[in-house]
Automatic annotation (TrEMBL):
Catalyzes the conversion of the 17-keto group of estrone, 4- and 5-androstenes and 5-alpha-androstanes into their 17-beta-hydroxyl metabolites and the conversion of the 3-keto group of 3-, 3,17- and 3,20- diketosteroids into their 3-hydroxyl metabolites. Exhibits reductive 3-beta-hydroxysteroid dehydrogenase activity toward 5-beta-androstanes, 5-beta-pregnanes, 4-pregnenes and bile acids. May also reduce endogenous and exogenous alpha-dicarbonyl compounds and xenobiotic alicyclic ketones. It catalyses: a 3beta-hydroxysteroid + NADP(+) = a 3-oxosteroid + NADPH + H(+); 17beta-estradiol + NAD(+) = estrone + NADH + H(+); 17beta-estradiol + NADP(+) = estrone + NADPH + H(+). It is an enzyme of class 1 (oxidoreductase). Coiled coil: none annotated. InterPro entries: NAD(P)-bd_dom_sf, SDR_fam. It comes from the Eukaryota. Pathway: Steroid biosynthesis; estrogen biosynthesis. This is Dehydrogenase/reductase SDR family member 11. The gene is DHRS11. Belongs to the short-chain dehydrogenases/reductases (SDR) family. It holds the Pfam family adh_short. The keyword Signal does not apply. Keywords: Oxidoreductase. It comes from Mustela putorius furo (European domestic ferret). Its EC number is 1.1.1.270, 1.1.1.62.
Length: 315
């Protein structure tokens, strides 16, 4: 998949486009909306007519995006909200402001995340905490608050989408992202746990994780903030996804009918298939539908197979 800003949603079929109709004028929270994937998702949702609360620490970028959406005449609105997702207090006060100033959160896109280059053998505890606080705790608090907000207003068709990573399903040989990968494995477990608890609560609110491969954003430049050349190389050595590709996947997930639950792995189609998919199907947007309570064999099966191989074959 590749995409440009104006194209987001354009490649969805008529059924998916119709599926987005039910979300018009409803409220979505997008975390990490100040850049990269979060900004693309926020823009795409505003284009589809939703009211979007976009949060992050850098307000200026979200304000610019809100103005851009307004001048483009998109049917929805983007409401910037400053929130440090490593602070429980900030998150709770954001949800309280949304409740009092708007309505309940119908969709929660847990996108904010970061990686610090703190390895397991010599990295700092503070770097680990930075990642854990946002990628795991911030995401979990937002998911819980979003669920409570939906429950209070008797919203039974809400959706919580966690932006995970391929590294939430396989451990990379790059030591600088081992701890990051652990936080993303947590996202895999948290999303499945959430799905089970939602089922137990007999609600039709859905939980989905989307696991992209490398996406060209500022992510690597923040990870390697002392070595911009290394960061740039991350995006040069392979064909990357664009933030708009992930935004389109979010629209697809939201547009599925309420009885369908989707999890997605996003890969960029390359001439040489990524090593963890060798022997598997071609790249692109791959997904599978599953009925609540009935997990089916899925695309991750391929990754599971590869993890079972001897190390030399994986690297
Ligand atoms: N890029 C990739 O290759 C890739 C691949 C797979 C998955 N992902 C995942 O996709 C998500 C988005 O990443 P991206 O590539 O778009 O990265 P990005 O361009 O660096 O954007 C990260 C976003 O997270 C926000 N954020 C970070 N710390 C925060 C905090 N303490 N409080 C509030 N917001 C915070 C940032 O906002 P502020 O700094 O303004 O607060 C920014 O909006 C992450 O969860 C990442 O793990 C990325």
């Amino acid at each position: 998949m590749s995409g440009s800003r104006s194209e987001v949603g354009a490649r969805l079929g008529a059924t998916a486009t119709a599926g987005m109709e039910r979300w018009r004028d409803r409220l979505a929270l997008v975390t990490g909306a100040s850049g990269g994937i979060g900004a693309a998702v926020a823009r795409a949702l505003v284009q589809q007519g939703l009211k979007v609360v976009g949060c992050a620490r850098t307000m200026g970028n979200i304000e610019e995006l809100a103005a851009e959406c307004k001048s483009a005449g998109y049917p929805g609105t983007l409401i910037p909200h400053r929130c440090d997702l490593s602070s429980e207090e900030d998150i709770l006060s954001m949800f309280s402001a949304v409740r009092s100033q708007h309505s309940c959160v119908d969709i929660c896109i847990n996108n904010a995340g970061l990686a610090r280059p703190d390895t397991l053998l010599s990295g700092s505890t503070s770097g680990w905490k930075d990642m854990f606080n946002v990628n795991v705790l911030g995401l979990s608090i937002c998911a819980q608050e979003a669920y409570q907000s939906m429950k209070e207003r008797k919203v039974d068709d809400g959706h919580i989408i966690n932006i995970n990573s391929m590294y939430g399903h396989q451990v990379s040989p790059h030591s600088v992202i081992h701890f990051y990968s652990a936080t993303k494995y947590a996202v895999t477990a948290l999303t499945e746990g959430l799905r089970q608890e939602l089922r137990e609560a007999q609600t039709h609110i859905r939980a989905t994780c989307i696991s992209p491969e490398v996406v060209e954003t500022q992510f690597a430049f923040k990870l390697h903030d002392k070595d911009p050349e290394k960061a740039a190389a991350t995006y040069e050595r392979i064909k990357c996804l664009k933030p708009e590709d992930v935004a389109e996947a979010v629209l697809y997930v939201l547009s599925t009918p309420p009885h369908v639950q989707v999890s997605l792995v996003l890969t960029a189609p390359t001439l040489e298939e990524p090593r963890h998919l060798r022997g598997g199907q071609q790249g692109g947007l791959r997904g599978w539908g599953e009925r609540p309570g009935c997990l089916k064999p899925c695309a991750f099966q391929q990754i599971g197979d590869i993890q079972m191989r001897p190390m030399e074959q994986v690297i």
